[in-house]
Amino acid sequence: MTRLNDDSLVVIGGDAAGMSAASKVRRVQPDRKIIVFEKTSYTSYSACGIPYFISGTITDCDALVRRSPEEFRNKYNIDVHTQHLVTKVDTANKRIKVHDTENNREFWQEYGQLLIATGAKAYCPDVKGNSAENVFGISTLRSGIRVEKYIRENKPGKAVIIGGGYIGLEMAEALLMRGLKVSIVTRGSQVMDTLDPDMGIKISDAIKSLGINLYLNEEFKHFELDNDKVNAVVTTNNTIDADIVILGMGSAPNTTFLADSGIALGVKGAIKVNGQMQTNIPDVWAAGDCTETLNLVSKQQFYIALGTVANKTGLVAGTNLAGEKITFPGVVGTAVCKLCKYEVARTGLQEKELKKLNIEYVATTIDSTTRADYFPGNKKITVKLLAEKNSGRLLGGQIVGEEDAAKRIDVLAVAITHNLTLQNLIDMDLSYAPPFSPVWDPVQTCARKLIKYI
Amino acid sequence: MTRLNDDSLVVIGGDAAGMSAASKVRRVQPDRKIIVFEKTSYTSYSACGIPYFISGTITDCDALVRRSPEEFRNKYNIDVHTQHLVTKVDTANKRIKVHDTENNREFWQEYGQLLIATGAKAYCPDVKGNSAENVFGISTLRSGIRVEKYIRENKPGKAVIIGGGYIGLEMAEALLMRGLKVSIVTRGSQVMDTLDPDMGIKISDAIKSLGINLYLNEEFKHFELDNDKVNAVVTTNNTIDADIVILGMGSAPNTTFLADSGIALGVKGAIKVNGQMQTNIPDVWAAGDCTETLNLVSKQQFYIALGTVANKTGLVAGTNLAGEKITFPGVVGTAVCKLCKYEVARTGLQEKELKKLNIEYVATTIDSTTRADYFPGNKKITVKLLAEKNSGRLLGGQIVGEEDAAKRIDVLAVAITHNLTLQNLIDMDLSYAPPFSPVWDPVQTCARKLIKYI
């Protein structure tokens, strides 16, 4: 066991949040001791790019790596240990237990300050077969590489994706591109349950039009196994043959190793943090997909695992760890996904959340075009807005379109973050030229319709 | 002369602002008498689409017309008179003098309320030849049709465009597509002087790479004429052969007919209006390209001729004319333009304006990519941000990129309108997926760089 002076920073997890923080601390504190433990062989990679590596769109997985462990060691003087899994945090003695999985040895590491950035894993119920060799979550680059290798070596014919969220849809597209026959199983009435069902149905229809078998309103029950491999996925109503299974039921924070650490956990077991990304324990900080996040619209903590949030909270944690006080305000739940020709984007709260919060709201949807309607190549776009009754304050937005949904949702994200109203949006000086937009942007056209109902 | 009850609304100008207002009044007041006088044969068309009609991108100019005079008459019961030019406003007697150009007769028309929405024309200095048959401004659909017809019938070989702003650039692209040899003359150090020169140079370079002759830092002096046609454009240093001339030196409001009306004019002769679009004279309102506009960043009135502003102020004028009080807050100067593969976008104030206002500012520029840097098809994008010294409040943004500049400027437009800071922008929950953006959107990357300088 190494004794360090109290100034040392130990980081658990070497991806977006952990390395954003470590890099920031290094920039501000060039001489500080910084140690990182990462359970895989990779650091600082784009987890969001994994489906595009599996699809073959990106042929070299190294392209997803922003900075390698060697780069962090040599250029940044950050002491990165890969294939080191942290199994316990002993906050009373300010030390962590580390398992060097390559050399199969265990040791305790003291810390001056600790940052937990262990990310998330694909959620799977505790059923037999959930760790079979042909069942995959997509959470680390290592898991992505395993999927790609499994497809290449085993040539599975039939894929079943459990869950119809972002990862499920991106993986469906990826596996289609690899020539597999794809089924998606979801318990929702439509895929993409972060959209309201009237918007989700557009994506369900798009999925079916691609030749994907879509099983809606079906709960995953268990696997059927043959020689330790899953060969079928059993749902409420069906048994679906599977040569490979992808878990897309959402993410679960990697926090089980924190049991008995005294570190307070919240929603879905994610680490509770304040605006500076401090946990309830002195000198213990957390950032990224293993933490709770404040939803600025509901004013409640929730759990969201996204690269943008991981990068931002990592930077905020690092800034504070380096002694410059800064606060992460929270998020509005902006997310975007590409499914073949569709862009699917959302921000703010959806109808079921507003109902749960007893917020009186109005909602409407409009169909418009992405360019002036006379401009060649213009595409369809559908915008849904939700606003508070009476005040007209924007509460949520959902966009499905064949181009420019992603950047249009950002306008709504800014508006929602800063409590703007439908009238503010109508008044907004948004850009216009015929190749880029109708003269009233579709988000404004939707606001003009909705304001009549408030 | 027709006597009307005092309830009548008379509108001068049948394009975006005038017809937005008239349509809004009709929706709220189904029985009100509404009369519109329009000097051309067209109503409610997309003036911004004209370059794309001239280029041949849009083959039928009717596609640019949203609603025809017949439609307004028959479906909306709006009494539209085309080819009627209003030559005088007599506010003392609440009447206007109208010239029916088709039948060459003049008459007086009384009004209960008057809305002036006469738009703008291409500015040209008072030099001989400025109304020659081969010299064109692009301000009305009629003028666009004339240009297209002139090219088709006269097959000019050499075009000279005077001015390097939006219209100049869009027309340069259009004329190139029609096979003309194109020259642009501008007195600025770069084209697109609504950008700072360090961003404008990118567009100057792009223009040159298209084979356009670009004359920078050259003032237009006068025309050389041959048989009443211009055959050369004379600048400070050059005489440039021209078979056709396009005026792109900016817009001038159509307000000369208001001399002696008592209606107050402001910047560049544009009509002064309040937030409800009322002029200084009771019962006289104005909207669109003939009016001044409040710049929300400089807090000063300025002149901007844009379809978005015309539509918005027309709607605000109409809403107030119909008795529902509403205020137009102003604009931040958002504008966007396509030049071949480039999207050019700007909002807020530029360096020269900030200097004039004695606002202490910081500015920086970053180069980034429009998608994750590993994602196929990603394009270059350059973002410039300007922010107030100390406070970090965003003051302006300029983006030049090969995709998605237009929608990214909108994020900055919302931020600037609502006085957000660089830190607000960094914190912002913008959308991210590898096909659409790097994990830090380029506007955030620029903010992260600039915040170090405040």
Judging from the principal axes of the Cα atoms, what is the shape of chain A?
Answer: globular
In whole angstroms, the N-to-C terminal distance of chain A is 64 Å
Mean pLDDT of chain A: 96
Tally of alpha and pi helices of chain A: 11
Strand numbers in spatial order across the main sheet of chain A:
3-2-1-7-18
- Estimate what percentage of residues of chain A fall within beta strands: 25-35%
Tell me about this structure.
Chains A, B: This is FAD-dependent oxidoreductase. Chains A, B: Keywords: FAD, Flavoprotein, Oxidoreductase, Redox-active center. The structure is a homodimer of 454-residue chains. The first copy, chain A, is built from eleven helices and 25 strands. Chain A has a five-stranded parallel β-sheet. In chain A, strands 9-16-10-11-12 form a five-stranded parallel β-sheet, with helices on one face. In chain A, strands 21-22-25-24-23 form a five-stranded antiparallel β-sheet, sandwiched between helices. In chain A, helix 1 (16-28) packs parallel to helix 7. Chain A has helices spanning 16-28, 50-54, 69-76, 141-154, 166-177, 197-209, 307-321, 351-356, 405-417, 422-427, 442-450; strands spanning 9-12, 34-38, 79-82, 84-90, 95-100, 105-110, 113-116, 120-122, 135-137, 158-162, 181-185, 213-215, 220-226, 229-235, 239-241, 244-247, 251-253, 284-286, 293-295, 300-302, 335-339, 342-348, 361-369, 380-388, 394-401. In chain A, strand 10, helix 5 (166-177) and strand 11 (181-185) form a beta-alpha-beta unit. The longest helix of chain A has 15 residues, at 307-321. The termini of chain A are far apart. The model of chain A has no long low-confidence stretch (mean pLDDT 96). The first copy, chain A, is globular, with a radius of gyration of 23 Å. By secondary structure, chain A is an alpha/beta fold. Chain A folds into three domains: 9-121 and 252-321, 3-Layer(bba) Sandwich (FAD/NAD(P)-binding domain); 124-249, 3-Layer(bba) Sandwich (FAD/NAD(P)-binding domain); 335-453, FAD/NAD(P)-binding domain (3-Layer(bba) Sandwich). Chains A and B meet through helix 7, strand 21, strand 22, helix 9 and helix 10 of A and helix 7, strand 21, strand 22, helix 9 and helix 10 of B.
